[in-house]
Amino acid sequence: MGLKLKTVVPWGRSLDEYIRMFALTPGDLQLTLLDCAGGPASFNAELTGSGGRVVSCDPIYQFALNEIQQRIQDTYPLIIAGVSANLNRYRWHSIQSPEQLGEVRLKAMQQFLADFPNGLATGRYQVAELPTLPFGDRQFDLALCSHLLFTYSDQLSVEFHLASIQELCRVAAEVRIFPLLTLAGEDSPLVPIVVDTLKQQGYEASIHTVDYEFQRGGNQLLRIKP
Ligand SMILES: C[S@@+](CC[C@H](N)C(=O)[O-])C[C@H]1O[C@@H](n2cnc3c(N)ncnc32)[C@H](O)[C@@H]1O
């Protein structure tokens, strides 16, 4: 895996944010879950702590704890500066300022860092990179993918998106992707192409509005079932 750590911008969300981004019900949280592109989110640490069954995969897990920690420290001020320079791209409701955003994200990433060594040793964190995953067919009930697909629509092709979603549908009975906006906060131009193509291939694909909006207009997920 040729990922260079200096190209990664680690940014992690919490269990509460995952619940709202993906409209996860108490029943969903009992399922066997995959958090694909989990990065330094605290979803796995928090859910495991409350008895959930979740595997997170991400190419960033190939790096050592102190390397990921250092990369978070290096990129954190740049991300907060970028958000501060584009305040109107975000809805400042449950998170009220860039400073508070920083606190919330750092707390989640610190929970991830504290959990990473144990989770890596027990296989809850696995090094893997879309569009090919090292998991069995239908190993998971539900796969989640937050802030990778569609977010990087300018860097990841429609072919990459389709191959990645097909792979996620191979390993899980249902896939949810959030958000459907690009990093710049625009509707991803890939969404209609991907949805139409998946439907033509026989997948169920539907867009749902969720009770979470931080990026302005970013309150929709794509749900796919094989
Ligand atoms: C912005 S972070 C999102 C982290 C987490 N899902 C969240 O919402 O808090 C994007 C993550 O995608 C990971 N990533 C990049 N390319 C990937 C690929 N081909 N397959 C899986 N993950 C990838 C990065 O390493 C990074 O951790």
Briefly, what is this?
This protein is an alpha/beta fold.
How would you characterize this protein structure?
The chain has a seven-stranded mixed sheet with strand order 3-2-1-4-5-7-6, with helices on both faces. The longest helix has 24 residues, at 98-121. The protein has one domain: Vaccinia Virus protein VP39 (Rossmann fold, 3-Layer(aba) Sandwich), CATH 3.40.50. Helix 2 (43-49) crosses helix 4 and helix 3 packs antiparallel against helix 4. Helix content is 37%, strand content 17%. With 226 residues, it is an alpha/beta fold. It is built from six helices and seven strands; from the N terminus they run αβαβααββαβαββ. The radius of gyration is 16 Å and the shape is globular. Strand 1, helix 2 (43-49) and strand 2 (53-57) form a beta-alpha-beta unit. The chain binds S-adenosylmethionine (SAM). S-adenosylmethionine is lined by residues 8, 10-13, 36-39, 41, 58-60, 129-130, 146-148.
